[in-house]
Design goal:
Largest sheet of chain A: 8 strands, mixed
CATH superfamily of chain B: Archease domain
CATH class of the largest domain in chain A: Alpha Beta
CATH topology of chain B: Archease, Possible Chaperone, Chain: A, domain 1
CATH architecture of the largest domain in chain A: Alpha-Beta Complex
Oligomer: heterodimer
Number of domains of chain B: 1
Strand content of chain A: 25-35%
CATH architecture of chain B: 3-Layer(bab) Sandwich
Helix content of chain A: 25-40%
Number of strands of chain A: 19
Structural class of chain A: alpha+beta
CATH class of chain B: Alpha Beta
Distance between the termini of chain B: 21 Å
Shape of chain A: globular
Shape of chain B: globular
């Protein structure tokens, strides 16, 4: 029998009294089917563990795309009261500032005509999964400068304005990033990585909110490119380094936890401050990485569609999925951990770029490979109920092993291509692991965040071609 | 022996072996499966020395070192030529070559990390972030 109670149309809660070590309730935004999946795969138990963290306020939250992770569930949000609430590197995740960036081309799918295959081919050539043997990346970019300032080391002002936090978290300190982390990140700017990372060519299939779509510069049948990547080896190593450091420090702070991966320390402690400085540097690196990938996209567009099309390819926005940020709610400074969740500030928020301030912050929800993605806009309910957050994707429902058992990569590639979706991937098994049936129905996830008042649909994007890492 | 358990988001590696060093060898074999790039050569050797207070952390450190070599040095491991456990220390020699390891494994988590005695040997579990 579930310990969770349904407390709203799409809100479920395990009360803090359910476990002696829970400090706040564990609250889930989901409909019945999504909640059942979240409970079944262990995410709810992981969320209960998050609710035990010192300094956590209101409730530990799970978005409708939540699924089993490590420590935090993927799709988890938790806010800690500053200065003494904890910061948990595992609550941000190894891929610090994994996120998505949407570019809009000044061209419709109809105008692309027979140039789709060459464009997807060029995208695959221009954006490698890893550094490879040839130095195709911005290896010359000064790494410490990137860690301090993110993409503003070289990016245009228009792109920076349309990036969460303008692509730079304050307090970033390259000295807090280990040499091993720097060695992993060196040469990886402009590389996608593997797993669920991708670059997708899409068309706007439907507009749901004409005013917001106009503000975002999106029109029906317009071509878009969605980039999903993060901080690569540099961020992964930062998290590894600080999980270990905090594990060693916890006894000193008398912190006991139900899961080693939740290792944490007070945000105001030397360990907490050092992690936040390193995390900010890794987040800046991730924004620079997506900037370098966006540059490569524009280069590919120039080669296939011409310089003028590339020059007019605009950045709609760039949002982080894995990050901890200081934000103010109810008169308190809180450290909001988003692990597989997106900031979704509503219209009127000072942190939303001026061109979008009347309609709310853009949020991008990638579906699984071969299915639709969504552009949403932040709604006031996100501030009232979810520390300014919403979901980040469809959310897995089947393990990678399970996906490989059900379909072979080559067969999946043929299925997608039969539906008119061009696929480029160096790994056939990697392709199978990301099969659409391994994910929840993204339309259903979006419906829940709309019903919960966290974000509203603006446009639905359909894939034309996908480049996988 | 090793096998991949059912974990929705990540990769859960389950290991069973008659001795403690054999658990570490099986973990090496599992990692090689994940990063193999289709080439076969073991022209170079890396020596790895690690220390951790308990076995589960040492197993995590072992895999973390292989992740680091693959990511920072593009080192594709092929063959384990030596592995010694001495108290809380591990010393190993790995042969392989610089190549294009599949950039799948991001990190080695502490979630559900375990290393324990089983009926006829040792059993371990580690969740890899992918």
């Amino acid at each position: 029998m579930s310990r969770a109670q349904r407390i709203g149309e799409v809100v479920w809660e395990v009360p803090a009294s359910a476990r002696a070590d829970m400090r706040v309730p564990a609250r889930v935004f989901a409909d019945e089917a999504l909640f059942e999946a979240i409970e079944r795969d262990g995410s709810l138990a992981q969320l209960e563990n998050v609710a035990t963290l010192p300094g956590v306020v209101d409730a530990a939250l799970a978005m409708p795309d939540a699924h089993q992770g490590y420590g935090f569930p993927v799709g988890g949000v938790a806010a800690m009261e500053l200065p003494d609430g904890v910061v948990s590197p595992g609550g941000v995740g190894y891929d610090i500032n994994c996120g998505v960036r949407l570019l809009a081309l000044p061209l419709s799918a109809a105008e692309l005509a027979g140039r789709k295959e060459p464009l997807v081919h060029e995208l695959a050539r221009a954006i490698p999964a890893g550094p490879g043997k040839e130095a195709r990346t911005r290896a010359s970019a000064d790494l410490d400068a990137v860690l301090r300032d993110g993409p503003r080391v070289w990016a245009e002002a228009d792109d920076l304005e349309r990036t969460e936090s303008q692509g730079r978290l304050p307090g970033a300190d390259p000295a807090a990033v280990s040499e091993r982390a720097k060695a992993r990140g060196a040469g990886q700017l402009g590389t996608m990585g593997s797993g669920n990372h991708f670059v997708e060519l899409q068309r706007v299939a439907r507009i749901d909110d004409a005013e917001a779509a106009r503000a975002y510069g999106l029109a029906e049948d317009q071509l878009t490119v969605l980039i999903h990547s993060g901080s690569r080896g540099l961020g992964h190593q930062v998290c590894s380094d600080y999980v270990k450091r905090m594990e060693n420090a916890m006894r000193r702070y008398r912190i006991e936890l139900p899961d080693r991966q939740l290792a944490c320390a007070p945000a105001s402690s030397p360990e907490g401050e050092a992690y936040l400085a390193a995390m900010a540097a890794a987040a800046n690196f991730a924004w620079a990485n997506r900037q370098a990938i966006a540059d490569a996209v524009r280069l590919a567009v120039a080669r296939v569609l011409g310089e003028s099309v590339a020059r007019a390819t605009r950045q709609v926005y760039d949002v982080a999925h894995n990050v901890a940020k200081v934000e103010r709610y109810g008169g308190r400074d809180l450290l909001v951990h988003r692990k597989g969740a997106t900031r979704a500030f509503p219209a009127g928020s000072a942190d939303v770029p001026e061109p979008y301030r009347q309609v709310g912050q853009p949020v991008f929800i990638p579906g699984s490979m071969g299915t639709a993605s969504w552009v949403l806009a932040g709604e006031p309910g996100s501030l009232e109920r979810a520390f300014g957050s919403t979901c980040h994707g469809a959310g897995r429902t089947l393990s990678r092993t399970g996906a490989r058992k059900r379909i072979e990569g080559g067969e999946l590639r043929r299925e997608l291509e039969a539906r008119g979706i061009t696929v480029r991937s160096p790994s056939t098994s990697g392709l199978a692991e990301e099969a659409p049936f391994a994910y929840k129905d993204v339309d259903r996830v979006v419906e829940v965040v709309q019903r919960a008042g966290l974000a509203r649909p603006v446009a639905r994007l359909e894939p034309l071609g996908v480049v996988k890492g | 022996m090793y096998r991949w358990g059912e974990h929705v988001g990540e990769l859960e590696l389950e290991l069973e072996a008659p001795t403690e060093p054999a658990v570490f060898r099986d973990a090496f074999a599992a990692f090689c499966e994940l990063v193999a790039d289709g080439q076969a050569s073991d022209a170079e050797q890396r020596t790895i020395e690690l220390q951790a207070a308990e076995r589960a952390s040492l197993l995590a450190a072992w895999l973390e070192e292989l992740v680091y070599l693959a990511d920072a040095e593009r080192f594709v491991p092929e063959r384990l030529v030596d592995l010694q456990l001495d108290g809380d220390r591990l010393r190993a020699a790995v042969r392989g070559r610089p190549g294009e390891p599949r950039p799948l494994v991001k990190a080695v988590t502490r979630h559900r990390l375990a290393f324990e005695r089983a009926d006829d040997g040792w059993r371990a579990r580690v969740v890899l972030d992918v």
